[in-house]
Every structure is written in structure tokens, then in C-alpha cells.
Write a structure and sequence with these properties.
CATH architecture of the largest domain: 3-Layer(aba) Sandwich
Structural class: alpha/beta
Helix content: 25-40%
CATH class of the largest domain: Alpha Beta
Shape: globular
Largest sheet: 9 strands, mixed
Strand order of the largest sheet: 6-5-7-8-4-9-10-11-12
CATH topology of the largest domain: Rossmann fold
Number of strands: 21
Bound molecules: thymidine-5'-diphosphate, magnesium ion
Distance between the termini: 70 Å
């Protein structure tokens, strides 16, 4: 007999009140071995084969009908198991119904299993999306055996299970949504997906409460794991890949929730820059890379004289605190500005996280722009990594970023000494040091 923490998966031979791994209370549940429920026609064991006799996978990769999503998934091979995580209400069911309909239109039958909604509800959503594909098969059940039977009967090219937390793999193995059930369901579904060559999408909710196994607990069982995230109060969503057996995990897709479901934002470069045309002090625009794609983000700074006795305020949203403390020290040392007397608040507009050092110069420029109360012209972007010696370092994919910047109508770029696009259609100022960069922006 063994017990397992339902939050992090820690295993213990006896029941524990508090999990030594994740620190949660009352999360241990007894784990019983689930009897295998795979129908015989799907579970026949294959003997091991010598490598040359192993059939090569069909070279064709399936498209989801949404190029941006394909870029993140890296193309779907038959039998691939893809985990779609995200908070409740973020749009997972909407997106998967759209993908399911697209796949059904292009390649054949798709089975969409909902454990949360009745088929009529799913139909209603499909109508709303204008996607009533005749090749889309709906099933409402929580029973793994029914899902496996339906797979055998329909023989779909793709399967959607919405959600993994509603599938009951073993009636005696604990509550629906418990770690044991979720793992067993994921394991059995991916086994069948592999034998039958069915592209399988598993939906999983992220929840903060324990007693409910989230997507993290099954990431190791799937080929691709993606998360759908909201990036601000509004309608923008980012699809981000955290694991990919078939491609890179660096890609992201920007999607927008509309009345007709999620639509791709094919050129999201400018989405993270506020629309007002007026230049404001304390704002710098930086071309950052998300995967292979350039996004323009607005770094905002508010710098005021430190009021009280304690240490000055350092607050960040969307930027790394430690990195910014280093930049403040560099500003202090190499520009001779007494930053300890200043409260510094920094934010990235649009709720995006910027971790790239390439944003350093932009962060410094925003800080100085606020301090001097002098705006940076709106047609100017700032790019470069700042070294401890106050030097400016080249950034990855500089030419690509500047090309994108020029395409979007920016006229001027402050950059380190580094390769440039062949015909830069903008004025490029190359600075060797932080000081030169700030001088070019007239911020000293
Ligand atoms: P849903 O896909 O049900 O989220 P999840 O499966 O991740 O829990 O989406 C929920 C929200 O999306 C809901 O508030 C309604 C909204 N929505 C739209 O804005 N447009 C649409 O076309 C659809 C189908 C849903
Ligand atoms: Mg849903």
C-alpha cells in the first residue's frame, strides 16, 4: 500500500498530514493499482522488434489549421499526445473545438470527449464558432472505458479529452480528478494513442487548490505540453510550449479571444505598445524576442526621490528584480547618478515578462527618461545588453529585430556595435557604452 500527495506527486509508504516535498496539508491519498481497462483489440502487446523492422512513422505532419498554433506545436505526428494546460475559463475548450473541427475538415474523423459538458452544449459552442464539421464526433462521458471503446468504434485521426481531470480510469482508485485517476487516464490514453496512431489532445485545468491533479503531474507522460495563458485583463492569449519532443519550446503564439473563438494575431509586434501617440517621459520601446518572433514592448519607469528613512523602493512588474538592481548599480557607477536616493518602479506594459538582457539598455533609458522628465521620441527603439563595466554588448538576432522595427514604421534605433540588416531602413545609432547610448537619447 502506498500514499501519494495529490498536489506534487510525492510518494510515501504511510499517510502523512503534511507533504515534505511541497508543504501542503492534507493532500495524501491512498494509491491503489488500477486494473488495466484497455479493450483487448487495442491492448495487444507488440513483441520487441529489431530496429530495421520498426516501421518509420508516416512523414506527414498534421496541421491544426492555425499556422500560429502549428508553429508552437511543431507539427503533429500521428500518435502524438499533446497536453493543453490553462486556468479555467481561459479558452481551452474553445481552442480545442476549433482545432478539432479544422482537423476533421482536413483529415477525417475527430472524437471530442467532454466530461464537463453535455454534447448539446458542445454543439452550441460549435454553432457559435460556425464550425459544425460532419466529421466531428461528440461524446459526453467520464468513463475511460467508454472513451477507449468509442476510439475503437470511431477510429478517429484525432482525439480530444476535455478534461483529463474528469476522466475516471478506475472506479476503485480514488476520486475523479485525483492524482491516481489523472495519471492512470493519461497513461492509458497515450498508450492507445501510440498504438493506434491517433493524435491526442489532453486538456488539463490549472488550479491553485490541492486535491486536484494539475497538468504538471502528467507532463512527463506526454510528447508536447503547451499552456494557454491570459496576458492581461483583456482578450489576448499566449500559447506557450514547455515541452516538445518534436520541435523547439521557444515558440509562442499570440491569439485573441473574439465572439468567434480564438483568432490568430499573425503580426503581434505592436500589441504590447500602448496606442497613444504622445511620447511620455519614462517610456522606452524595446524589440524583445519571444521564440523567433520580435515583439515590441514598452518598458515603463517611474522614478521619484526616495522619501523615507528605510531602503529606497524597488518594484518591478514583468522584469527581473536582481537584473534591475545590477543596472541601477551600473547607472550609479558609470553615469554618476546617485540612485540610492531614488524610488524606482518599473513595469512592462501588457503584462508580458521580459527576461532578456537585450532589454537592459531600454530599462536604463526608461529610468533616465523618468528621472529627467524627458520623453524618448516615439519613433525610436532601444536595444542592448549592459555589462558591469558600463559597456554595451551585442544582442542575439539583432538584424532580424531591426528589420521588424523598420517594417513597423520606427525611424531610429539605438543599438550596440553589432551586425545590422543589409539595408537598414532606419537610422541606426551604434553606441559602445551605456553613456553613449544615453547621450544619443539626450538623457544625460
Ligand atoms: P472556455 O473555452 O470554456 O474555457 P476553458 O475550457 O479554458 O475553461 O472559454 C471560456 C470563455 O471564452 C467564456 O468566458 C466565453 C468565452 N468565449 C468567447 O469569448 N468567444 C467564443 O467564441 C467562445 C466559444 C467563448
Ligand atoms: Mg473547458
Amino acid at each position: 500500500m502506498s500514499f501519494r500527495c495529490q498536489v506534487c506527486g510525492y510518494r510515501s509508504p504511510k499517510w502523512l498530514g503534511r507533504c515534505p516535498q511541497c508543504g501542503e496539508y492534507g493532500t495524501f491519498e491512498e494509491e491503489r493499482e488500477a486494473p488495466s481497462q484497455v479493450p483487448p483489440e487495442l491492448s495487444r502487446e507488440e513483441p520487441p522488434k529489431p530496429l530495421p523492422e520498426v516501421p518509420a512513422p508516416p512523414p506527414e505532419r498534421l496541421s491544426t489549421g492555425m499556422p500560429e498554433v502549428d508553429r508552437v506545436l511543431g507539427g503533429l505526428v500521428p500518435g502524438a499526445v499533446v497536453l493543453f494546460g490553462g486556468e479555467p475559463g481561459i479558452g481551452k475548450s474553445t481552442l480545442l473545438l476549433q482545432l478539432a473541427a479544422n482537423i476533421a475538415d482536413q483529415y477525417g474523423k475527430v472524437l471530442y470527449v467532454s466530461g464537463e459538458e453535455a454534447p448539446s452544449q458542445v454543439k452550441l459552442r460549435a454553432q457559435r464558432l460556425g464550425r459544425e464539421s460532419p466529421n466531428l464526433y461528440l461524446l459526453s462521458t467520464q468513463d475511460l472505458l467508454s472513451i477507449l471503446n468509442a476510439m475503437a468504434r470511431v477510429a478517429p485521426v484525432a482525439l480530444v479529452v476535455d478534461s483529463l481531470q474528469t476522466v475516471l480510469a478506475n472506479p476503485e482508485g480514488g476520486e475523479v480528478g485525483s492524482l491516481a485517476q489523472v495519471r492512470e487516464s493519461a497513461a492509458q490514453l497515450s498508450r492507445v494513442a501510440k498504438t493506434a496512431g491517433i493524435v491526442t489532445f489532453l486538456v488539463s485545468h490549472i488550479t491553485k487548490e490541492g486535491g486536484f491533479a494539475g497538468p504538471k503531474t502528467v507532463e512527463h507522460l506526454v510528447d508536447v505540453a503547451v499552456y494557454l495563458e491570459g496576458i492581461r485583463e483583456g482578450d489576448l492569449r499566449i500559447l506557450r510550449c514547455v515541452k516538445n519532443r518534436y520541435g523547439s519550446t521557444a515558440e509562442v503564439a499570440v491569439l485573441e479571444m473574439t465572439g468567434k473563438g480564438l483568432v490568430e494575431v499573425p503580426n503581434p509586434s505592436l500589441f504590447f505598445v500602448s496606442k497613444e501617440a504622445l511620447p511620455r517621459p519614462g517610456t522606452a520601446i524595446v524589440p524583445v524576442l519571444e521564440g523567433t518572433r520580435t515583439l515590441l514592448v514598452e518598458v515603463q519607469a517611474l522614478v521619484t526621490p526616495a522619501g523615507g528613512y528605510g531602503p529606497p523602493q524597488r518594484r518591478m512588474a514583468g522584469l527581473d528584480l536582481n537584473r534591475t538592481l545590477v543596472l541601477l548599480a551600473v547607472i550609479e557607477k558609470h553615469l554618476g547618478i546617485h540612485t540610492r536616493a531614488l524610488d524606482v518602479y518599473l513595469a512592462v506594459a501588457g503584462g508580458l515578462e521580459v527576461t532578456e538582457p537585450a532589454a537592459d539598455l531600454g530599462v536604463c533609458a526608461a529610468i533616465l527618461s523618468s528621472l529627467r522628465d524627458r520623453p524618448i521620441p516615439m519613433d525610436t527603439v532601444v536595444l542592448g545588453e549592459v555589462g558591469l563595466a558600463g559597456d554595451l554588448r551585442p544582442v542575439r538576432k539583432g538584424p532580424e529585430r531591426l528589420q521588424e522595427v523598420a517594417k513597423l514604421g520606427f525611424r531610429r534605433a539605438i543599438v550596440p556595435h553589432q551586425p545590422l540588416p543589409k539595408k537598414p531602413e532606419l537610422e541606426v545609432v551604434r553606441a559602445k557604452t551605456l553613456r553613449e547610448g544615453m547621450e544619443a537619447l539626450e538623457l544625460l
